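Quick one: structure tokens for this chain, please?
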Amino acid sequence: MNPTPQEVRFTMIGVLLGVLLAALDQTIVSTAMPRIVGELRGAEYYAWVTTSYLLTSTVSAPIFGRLTELFSRKGVLLWAVSLFLLGSALSGLSQNMTQLILFRGLQGVGPFRPGPHHYRCALSPSSAGQAGGGFRGYFRPFLRGGALAGRSPH
């Protein structure tokens, strides 16, 4: 079954928005973390914020992979992005370092992992290679933009 050009376009827009989300998350958080930790007075727990995110995202990766085999990719992706956004909102509302660590862990359960598996289902093999190059080029400006957005104005 070949997807229509409109289906390919919508798929690519969705994946590009996911790439934007992933790039901005990583760069904003890493740039803003020293100030966040300072305001929450938790320098001794600084490393746990990143560790909880990395640990839960590492553990959840094969689980989400299996879920995409059992259920629709779209449904699993929407659920993962919803978990990620919930974790992001709760992280922003954290009142202490314990909450921040737990909510970043929740955020790590549902990260968007941009990769070829998201667009290969909508593209022909010859077009998938070109799309991969485009994604790498698209990702770079958001790495810079996220760092600027996370930078402290003081």
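The mean pLDDT is 77.
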